[in-house]
Task: structure prediction
Amino acid sequence: MWIFRKKIDQLNQDSLDALEGSKNKLLKKLFEKKEDADPSLKKRHPSKLRTDTLSKQFKKQLDDLMKILSQSNTRYVRCIKPNQNKKPCEMDSINFTDQLLCAGVLETIKIRKQGYSIRRTHEEFVKRYLNLYPNISHKIKIYEEKKNFTEAAFNMWENLAEIPEIKSLLNVNKKYIQFGKTKVFMKEEIKDILESKLNNIKYINRIQNNFRRWRIEKKVMKIIKAIRKIQAVYIGKLFRIV
Result:
């Protein structure tokens, strides 16, 4: 049994123009423009005289989709089932591994590690790791006025590269970080070291802040005790006089 499928796609514009210009009367009649045969159509629907081909429609829709994606921040969550029994607080490591392999997550991680997955503008790089190299903090306003943090990013990296962990990485392979015209491209290893150093500074700052607060509170409590003692002595003298 033969099944015939009707082709609903339109001919492209070049083919239509060639057939319309044919010397054969039958072909010319078959592919005559609708608006030429009936001038009223031209007045009614001037923008819909000829439909686009399916390929043109698909291309237009794809272009529209890419515009929307470029203007939006893509977010997605990949869900993994902890177990096949749908029970709470039950983790199946074998099931986890199978899902990660089938979903291609591990391959994605490998590809991400091979490239420069961390990309920050020069300004973001400088302001993010300013606490690791505060010597240029007094120049931040100058860079902001110039709207150019390239020099600051290079100066900062020259000093950050002296961190022992980073220095050992760069001795093996210097392609862990690259500087572009507007962005800094880093691998996960460099980013992890810098972030760990930032966290250490945060913890140190927190300890220092708590120590200062404790010291000031101690002084304030001494002053309050002294004031209360003076008040008690003064009130006692008043009652003795009375």
Summary: The two ends are 125 Å apart (CA to CA). The first strand starts at residue 118 and ends at 121.
